[in-house]
Amino acid sequence: MTQPEQTPGADLHYRALERLYTAAPVNHLFESALAIEERGRSRITFQVTEQTYHAAGAAHGTIYFKMLDDAAFYAANTLVTDRFLLTTSFNLHFTKPVRMGEVVAEGRWVSGKRRVFVAEARLVDAEGEEIGRGTGTFMRSHIPLAGLPGYSPEG
């Protein structure tokens, strides 16, 4: 795999993607934060609380999916500065249940530069153990990033 090159203005795009994440209504339901430090990578910190539990007292799989999908999506969308990407498929692997505490989702772009992108993500619990991983395929949409609430390269 070739490491993507850093482009001028990339930091403005990364901060705009972080604002887009914060502005999404679904993210107001959770205590989480997105950080993008380089092209093709993202990191989301997420607080798992009892509100996300299933009946057996651990985080529901929808929480795993959300964190993995978001981390992979944002890693891929660092390569696209004009359009919103859409998830077209996502494969999950659950390796350990998680209860209360901080979980980190680390996203990484794998391939694709034009229309279809592949990215992966992994979840790490507060003890540093991997609790899940996933791989997604994302497609360039017709939705301009500039028209979405929260996305503004100027800040």
Give the topology, please.
Layout: H1 10-23, E1 32-35, E2 41-48, H2 61-77, E3 83-94, E4 101-111, E5 116-124, E6 130-144
Antiparallel strand pairs: 1-2, 2-4, 3-6, 4-5, 5-6
Overview of this structure, please?
There is one protein chain. The protein has 155 residues and is of the alpha+beta class. The chain has a single domain (10-147), classed as Roll (Thiol Ester Dehydrase, Chain A). It contains two helices and six strands, in the order αββαββββ. It has helices at residues 10-23, 61-77; strands spanning 32-35, 41-48, 83-94, 101-111, 116-124, 130-144. The protein is globular. GO terms for molecular function: acyl-CoA hydrolase activity. Keywords: Hydrolase. It holds the Pfam family 4HBT.
In short:
The protein is an alpha+beta fold and 155 residues long. It is 20% helix and 38% strand. It has one domain (10-147): Hotdog Thioesterase (Thiol Ester Dehydrase, Chain A, Roll).
Features:
Thiol Ester Dehydrase, Chain A; 155 residues; 20% helix; 6-stranded antiparallel sheet; globular; Thioesterase domain-containing protein; PAAI_dom; 2 helices; HotDog_dom_sf; alpha+beta
